[in-house]
């Protein structure tokens, strides 16, 4: 591409009415970057002169450099690429850009003679828009603004989906925790650790890891409660009991695969018992840690701690199992464990239990029936259930131990 393919930036900046008004799209542009990719340095300089006051603009001189920017920089709301570039043309670049940064809106600049190839670009790169050259500065700016709005809309829809799904799963888990306290008390503990570790590792699918942890014990609905209680305490199981426990991950994953958009979460759950070494041999895991790696370590660590080991002893035991766990995950667990120092254990009366408190003990009837498991987070349904049970069952404790953020008083809980 040559510099004369676009409108002269000097005259474009002087065009009447080009000075942008302050509107929402312009405001958003200051918060999210736009990437222009072209092999001609003069053209990139022209883009900067035309648009840098209107957008937070970055440039790349090749497709390879553009992909590197997408991987390491950003987030980029919009990427605009020239079609004719050496080594990697615009079609190839934008197709790969879609894999690297799927949320980024993709556009292309092309000449009239390239229209047939532009159609290929739309099909292969899933373009939002392509522009023909020469392209006036105000037209280019408006196209970028439209791309920004499309990016914001797509992100808003994605965030809404995630929050809706997370909320729906939480309601499901709350209900199941009332039916099966050992399994879903454990899921609550695993969820907190898995979420912290995923965030510490900066995993892109951290929200999926959290949901996978919440549902990691779903298959336990098929396992007798007595067997589950023995397993959660680290007690010896019979061969048949062990087979039931081992099957629960696959059963839970199979149930979730029937729900649209939960396929990736189901796969994490299915692999929660598979050693990292074995996953690598199958080609299911790479050098970087993934959600299944986090889930396996969190579940196994909880099992050891529930059997009576201190955190340091449990983590040392995991480190001693060579090839079982991703080393980066174990390092992250050690780092995030320091966050637990921000909690303190307090004893509260049953009618003082508030949503958000974390149970620091099992709650059982005088006859030994487990109602709630250690590690469960108190929700409205949990608090209501305890109040109802206190009216029915004798021997229920009048107070329970809970974990609350250090420095938080009862009233603020």
Q: Topology, please?
A:
Elements: H1 9-13, H2 24-29, E1 33-37, H3 41-51, E2 56-60, H4 63-72, E3 76-82, H5 90-100, E4 105-110, H6 115-125, E5 129-132, H7 137-179, H8 181-200, H9 206-214, H10 225-232, H11 239-256, H12 263-270, H13 276-282, H14 291-306, H15 311-320, H16 327-336, E6 343-349, E7 358-359, E8 363-364, E9 370-372, H17 380-392, E10 399-405
Parallel strand pairs: 1-2, 1-3, 3-4, 4-5
Antiparallel strand pairs: 6-10, 7-10, 8-9
* CATH first level of the largest domain: Mainly Alpha
Full CATH superfamily name of the largest domain: Hypothetical protein af1432
The dominant shape is elongated
What summary fits the major beta sheet?
Answer: 5 strands, parallel
Gap from first CA to last CA: 63 Å
- CATH arch. level architecture of the largest domain: Orthogonal Bundle
Number of strands: 10
Output the strand order for the largest sheet: 2-1-3-4-5
Q: Which blocks of ≥5 consecutive residues have pLDDT under 50? A: 1-30
Overall SS class: alpha/beta
Order of helices and strands: HHEHEHEHEHEHHHHHHHHHHEEEEHE
CATH topology of the largest domain: Hypothetical protein af1432
Count of helical segments? 17
Rg over CA atoms, rounded to whole Å, is: 27 Å
Average predicted confidence as pLDDT? 80
Give the helix level as a range of percent: 40-55%
Range of strand content: 5-15%
């Amino acid at each position: 591409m040559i510099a004369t393919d676009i409108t002269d930036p000097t005259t474009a900046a002087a065009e009447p009415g080009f000075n942008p008004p302050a509107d929402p799209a312009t405001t958003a542009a200051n918060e999210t970057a736009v990437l222009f990719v072209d092999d001609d340095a003069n053209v990139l300089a022209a883009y900067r002169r035309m648009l840098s006051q209107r957008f937070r603009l970055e440039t790349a001189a090749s497709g390879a450099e553009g992909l590197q920017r997408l991987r390491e920089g950003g987030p980029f709301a919009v990427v605009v690429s020239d079609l004719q570039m050496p080594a990697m043309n615009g079609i190839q670049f934008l197709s790969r850009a879609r894999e690297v940064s799927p949320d980024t809106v993709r556009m292309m600049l092309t000449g009239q003679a390239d229209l047939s190839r532009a159609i290929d670009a739309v099909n292969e790169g899933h373009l939002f828009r392509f522009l023909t050259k020469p392209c006036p500065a105000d037209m280019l700016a408006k196209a970028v603004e439209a791309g920004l709005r499309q990016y914001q809309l797509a992100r808003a829809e994605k965030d809404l989906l995630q929050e809706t799904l997370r909320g729906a799963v939480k309601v499901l888990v709350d209900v199941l925790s009332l039916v099966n306290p050992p399994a879903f008390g454990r899921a609550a503990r695993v969820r907190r650790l898995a979420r912290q570790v995923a965030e510490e590792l900066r995993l892109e699918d951290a929200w999926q890891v959290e949901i996978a942890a919440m549902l990691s014990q779903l298959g336990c609905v098929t396992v007798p409660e007595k067997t589950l209680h023995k397993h959660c305490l680290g007690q010896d199981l019979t061969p048949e009991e062990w087979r039931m426990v081992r099957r629960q991950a696959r059963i839970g994953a199979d149930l979730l695969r029937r729900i649209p958009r939960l396929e990736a979460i189901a796969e994490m759950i299915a692999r929660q018992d598979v050693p990292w070494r074995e996953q690598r041999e199958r080609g299911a895991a790479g050098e970087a840690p993934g959600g299944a790696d986090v889930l396996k370590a969190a579940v196994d660590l909880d099992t050891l701690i529930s059997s009576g080991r201190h955190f340091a002893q449990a983590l040392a035991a995991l480190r001693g199992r060579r090839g079982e766990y991703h080393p980066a995950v174990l390092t992250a667990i050690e780092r995030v464990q320091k966050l637990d120092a921000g909690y303190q254990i307090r004893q509260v009366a049953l009618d003082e239990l508030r949503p958000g408190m974390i149970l620091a003990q099992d709650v059982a009837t005088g006859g030994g029936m487990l109602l709630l498991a250690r590690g469960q987070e108190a929700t409205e349904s949990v608090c209501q259930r305890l109040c109802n049970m206190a009216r029915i069952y004798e021997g229920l404790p009048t107070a329970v131990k809970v974990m609350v953020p250090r420095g938080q008083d009862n009233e603020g809980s």
